[in-house]
Amino acid sequence: MKKAKGLIITIISIVVIIAIIFGIHTLTNSHAQSKSATITVGSQGSDYDIWNHIATSKQAKQLGLKIKVKQITDGVQLNNATAQGSVDVNAFQSYSYLVAYNKEHKSSQLAALGTTYLEPLGIYSDKYKKISQIPNGATIAIANNPANTARGLLLLQSAGLIKLKKNFPALGNTNDIAANPKHLKFKEIDDTTGPRVLHSLDAVLISNTVALEGHLNVLKDSIFHEKIDTNTRSNINILATAKKNKDNKNYKKLVKLYHEPAIQKYIKDQYDGTKVEVQKPLSYLK
């Protein structure tokens, strides 16, 4: 009987010890998770301003997220920083830009966490009010990075200025133009300089983020812009992280946070509706 009681006491003692150890582990793990809620979000342009607002919002606090926002104005450098870990998540690029980056940087792969918005790419001109007024031999500025070059050429085709080859590739360029009836000339530029060169060229293709910095509204000031449809799905903006972090729960909370109604109202009011919310599964982009 004494042996039985002793065995019971021993078992109880072991259970208590295990419970204490488990409690300490849980507390430590909870503390670690709390610390991991500090997320460095890298961004640029108007997106940088948006994420500074989000970082201090009541909604971020309600989700238990502490966000530090870091500005890196060069897209490739921002993606490099994300792949290397000095930035946890970035908010600036379209899905097609991410795909192009991954193709060119095999050892620094990124993954999308979720969709955010679509901004129409626009054709702007200080000289002409309509696409039909662009003359023969006009010089048009297009972005010098692969994803935005291809996107710009597709827009010029939609505007009726050029015709592209069949099966135009995702990273197509001016060599893939099948017909150029107006004998247009193309000048490749750093796409962040669009508003500054607008006065010196016949037309310039400018992304909305850059246009907003130059006090331009794509819906009001462009002479032609992308329509929101399934053909522009690869141009939807995303939140991105290093591929190894694609399942990080705290990072995924940023997608939910972005789509909070109060955050969306702020963005709509601040940017005149030019950042069209897109809340779709990642499978929609592919």
TrEMBL record:
GO terms for cellular component: membrane. Belongs to the NlpA lipoprotein family. It comes from Lentilactobacillus parafarraginis F0439. It is found in: Membrane. It comes from the Bacteria. It holds the Pfam family Lipoprotein_9. SUPFAM superfamilies: Periplasmic binding protein-like II (SSF53850). Keywords: Lipoprotein, Membrane, Palmitate, Signal, Transmembrane, Transmembrane helix. It is a lipid-anchor. Its main location: membrane. The keyword Transmembrane applies. This is NLPA lipoprotein. The keyword Signal applies. The chain crosses the membrane at residues 7-27.
